[in-house]
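With this grant's support, we have settled on a layout for protein records. An illustrative entry appears below exactly as we store it:
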Amino acid sequence: MTAEQGGLGGWGRKAADETMQFDLYRFIGECQDALGADQPLKAMREVVARTVSEPASLMSALGEPRWAQIEKLYCSPELTILNLVWAPGMSFMPHNHQMWAIIGIYAGCEDNVFWRRIRDDAGGRVEPAGAKRLVAKEAEPLGRNIIHSVTNPMTSFTGALHVYGGDFFAAARSEWDPATKLERPYSVENTLRQFEDANASFVAAAALAGKEFK
């Protein structure tokens, strides 16, 4: 595995511990094996569900979620694995992936709203179609055409493993304006800005409450 494929760099703050209980390389291997299964989505969900069923082991390796980030653990044309952390109260706009995904929560919870395109709408707008809360130790599959938005309803950080059936960073996909629900091309810069803003808001709120931020 090359540094470009794996390592523990990527977007956001580095949060890895080289002395891991959770074995990242074994996990990557298990995910790669799942890709070759007769039902890869089902097999991948089982791998992720088993991994997030032991949150303490994961956090001993990745660190406790204390900073909103998208951390790249592995990326290839066939597979992307991210450690994604949502700040307290953080909401993220409707977006799609254009590939299947497994979301495994290891700390906190996230509220997902699922959206569908409004038929024949010239602006590609979407409307709500359902919702689901994911909590720690749960793993949820998402189909390649799913559009969803995410909110962390907690006053603490939420941590999750996200596994995608492709190169998450290279795929052309869409996001939807939170207010107008109009479709636009997905923007990496906009995503990074939202995570930076969420961290800034958290630090400001902690300062107002008289808490030391570390």
User: Anything to note?
Assistant: Confidence is low (pLDDT under 50) at residues 1-20. Helices lie at 24-35, 40-52, 55-62, 188-208. Residues 88 and 155 are 5 Å apart (CA to CA). The radius of gyration is 17 Å.
